[in-house]
Amino acid sequence: MPPLYIADFHTHYAGPDYPALPPHNTAAELAQRWRGLARRIADLDGLLAEAGRHGVDLRVLSAPPALVTPHGERTRPDDLRRLNDHLAEAVATAPQRLRGLATVDAFAGDSAAEEALRAVRDLGLSGLVVDCATDGQLLGATAARPTLTAAAELGVPVFAHPISPAAMTSAFAGLGRFGTSLARGTVNAAALLSLLADGVLAELPDLHVVFPMLGVAGLSLAAATDEGERITVAAPATQRAHVYLDTMGFTPAAIRFAADLLGADHVLVGGDWPIGQRETSRDRVETALARAGLDEAERRLVAGANTLRLLATRPGRDD
């Protein structure tokens, strides 16, 4: 059998003009690492070299608004355009090894949708990355509907990236890095549930949205209800909502849970590069997927085939 094709859907990149910022009220442990992380996030050559050493075939690059914008501020439209212009140029340097998700402020209404259209149609970017929430709104909010509608019409995925909500991040600060992750995971789970509760998934059946494993509690809670079954593999094919999880690490039990609930065709390798504690490598992916008990076909789907299919999805094509 040919080797697995490995695509890391969760890879961060922002050019030197937009340095990556640590999460709001981040744990001291992460803050100490951040200067080095920010340098790596801006180093495209280093990213490519590392991917080559680790046997990763494709990196999907993204810079969610909260990664490059000070807490409490909105990313300015001109900055979004510059970020996306630069990302398109970066991807063009190695088109067989890189794809890009346009940075979009999903809560900016129609102007956000216009940038999404420009980034995909004019720049050739493969999808969108958005903050899953603000401190006052979740992704199911009316303000985000134009962006989600545009993505559904374009047939490109939306990566709903976690943020650090002020109240929860402060409340969980005593837990250190676990508190930072818990706050981010909680709001990410809430954003997933908001798409269900606010009717977005029913209204936009062609929407393809990816959440990191950090928000898996939202999937678990949704799946425990009749209404939430629509996001699981148990739903009839014509009614199944297109919700995906990236592995955001390589814990076999978590991968098995996601594959059982969503179907192996809705799980993607994601390492949260370079922030994640365990970097994506061929050996790590192969070992994790085998220990998760996935068969050969399922391993190929999760390792890279799902990401390739998702980035190529257009209206009218099979999911």
UniProtKB/TrEMBL annotation:
Pfam families membership: Amidohydro_2 (PF04909)
Hydrolase is among the record's keywords: yes
Domain Amidohydrolase-related span(s) in chain numbering: 8-311
Record's keyword annotation contains Glycoprotein: no
InterPro entries: ACMSD (IPR032465), Amidohydro-rel (IPR006680), Metal_Hydrolase (IPR032466)
GO BP annotations listed: secondary metabolic process
Keywords: Hydrolase, Lyase
A molecular function (GO) term: hydrolase activity
Any one cellular-component term (Gene Ontology): cytosol
Protein name: Amidohydrolase 2
Organism: Micromonospora radicis
